Amino acid sequence: MTTYNVLTLFPDMFTSVCGSSIWARAISAGLISVNTTDIRDYATDKHRRADDYPLGGGAGMVMKPEPVDACFRDIMSRSEAPSINVYMSPGGKPLTHGLVTRLASYRTVNILCGHYEGVDARVLKRHIDLEISIGDYVLTGGELAAMVLIDAVIRHIDGVLGNDESASGESFVNGLLEYPQYTRPAVWDGEAVPEVLLSGHHANIAAYRRQESLRETARRRPDLLQKARLTKKDIEFITRRDSLNP
Ligand SMILES: C[S@@+](CC[C@H](N)C(=O)[O-])C[C@H]1O[C@@H](n2cnc3c(N)ncnc32)[C@H](O)[C@@H]1O
Predict the structure, then answer these.
(1) Residue 84 lies in a domain
(2) Among 144, 163, 182, where does a domain finish?
(3) Pocket test for ligand 1, best of 62, 89, 112 (most atoms within 8 A of CB)
(4) Rounded to the nearest whole angstrom, what is the distance from the C-alpha of residue 106 to the centroid of ligand 1?
(5) pTM as predicted
(6) Do β-strands 2-8 and 32-38 pair in parallel, antiparallel, or remain unpaired?
């Protein structure tokens, strides 16, 4: 069982996602556990204050160190090893497929969600192993970013995806974008799907999909192609004149 402990001021935000689709199935099958902890429960003053004005002035509020520290200590005392403490932050390491698969190897991932202007830097220094960003933009809080992280990571935990939902052929897994997908009807509004997909010839379908994957990657993300592991056949296809521009 892999455990995701989310430290947040807004635990209710997780209710819907935990109760839906693949998350709900993985939780009820005992494959993952997603626990939210309200940082405010660790505030000791009578107003349960978890934020305060920024020292040195400036707009907004900053999350106070004491409740975050107490919350981390409590959660870490119950965290099974190997565990990692993550802070969702616009200044963090970009979340990529490589980082997602690395996170999938931990038994416990403790995720701190910031809010307002962020979190007191001293408590981050005390507890955080890794800051992670989901993109070069600023969200109002770390909760949605934590959901993105958990969603991407659990796909790589054994049993979370059914056989027919395997992550193995998906974008980024082999360094390429995925080929285009089609479903029934075979002809929709006058437009037919590529004929090879109806042939039942598995080798031809696989070859077609590999070429489409190369074509899509070259067209949309040529940077990925530079780093992808390509076969001799792939390179021949890419270098063939016009093969990428039908
Ligand atoms: C309004 S933001 C704080 C932004 C901060 N003052 C700054 O300029 O970097 C509040 C919280 O949202 C989360 N957050 C915002 N953007 C994020 C991103 N791109 N990736 C991950 N977390 C993010 C962080 O937890 C952050 O503490």
Answers:
(1) yes
(2) 163
(3) 89
(4) 24
(5) 0.94
(6) parallel
